Amino acid sequence: AQKITQTQPGMFVQEKEAVTLDCTYDTSDQSYGLFWYKQPSSGEMIFLIYQGSYDEQNATEGRYSLNFQKARKSANLVISASQLGDSAMYFCAMSPFSSGSARQLTFGSGTQLTVLP
Amino acid sequence: ETGVTQTPRHLVMGMTNKKSLKCEQHLGHNAMYWYKQSAKKPLELMFVYNFKEQTENNSVPSRFSPECPNSSHLFLHLHTLQPEDSALYLCASSQDPWGGETQYFGPGTRLLVL
Fold first, then answer.
1. Could you give the CA distance from residue A111 to residue A29 in angstroms, rounded to a whole number?
2. Interface of B with A in 32-91 (CB under 8 A)
3. Quick check: B48 and B55 in contact, CB under 8 A?
């Protein structure tokens, strides 16, 4: 079974500053994918960034980057130059590349980010 | 329409009502999913469909009945629900249901059961 841990229930950041949202995971699978999603108060789950376990380089997508440390089983999301519109709940998730029911996407409990003007 | 759409966005129903949630994906994907998001709980996967065939049912009560007539449409039929079923119901799709595939979500249906 997979488990995702997000230890920061809430985070505050000043506008234009960078912020790191923590995510650790536990899995016995050798191959897996890691994802970050953003959920504004409207409810929609917006895909942000993906990291494959065999990718040697950290994923980047605009202002989002994923600090992937495989040995520590961590996949922290870094948001640079925060904007007011970044205020939302952020979820870390993972999915193994194995067969069977273990392929499902497992989510963490989320981090509520508030960007201050 | 683009991406994944869900209707209705909000739904209030009594415990004896029957209602249906609809999801449509415009991404050409083969797999579709239903998730439940309750307050203060992580997202829970309910059902997975691959090429219209149900491949996962995570011990969901029978008062929730999914239907997938084709790869683009997914329904969740609701009957005799309980107040604890009040939650945000999210639909998602991916190219295939294999692990590692990015899932794209709809805006969700906020359900309140009275």
1. 25
2. 41-43, 45, 48, 56, 58, 88, 90
3. yes
Burial label for B94, CB within 10 Å (0-12, 13-18, 19+), is buried
Q: How many residues does chain A have?
A: 117
pLDDT for A97: 80
Q: Give the number of other Cβ atoms within 10 Å of residue B44's Cβ.
A: 14
Q: Which among A50, A98, A103 has the least Cβ separation from residue B102?
A: A50
Asked whether residue B57 carries a pLDDT value surpassing 80, the answer given is no
A43 to chain B, any CB pair closer than 8 A? The answer is yes
CA end-to-end distance (rounded Å), chain B: 32
Question: How many CB pairs lie under 8 A apart between chains A and B?
Answer: 63
- Is A31 part of the contact surface with chain B (CB cutoff 8 Å)? yes
Q: What is the mean pLDDT of each run of 10 residues along chain A (117 residues)?
A: 92 97 93 94 93 92 96 96 97 81 79 97
* pLDDT tens-digit series, residues B85-95: 999 999 999 98
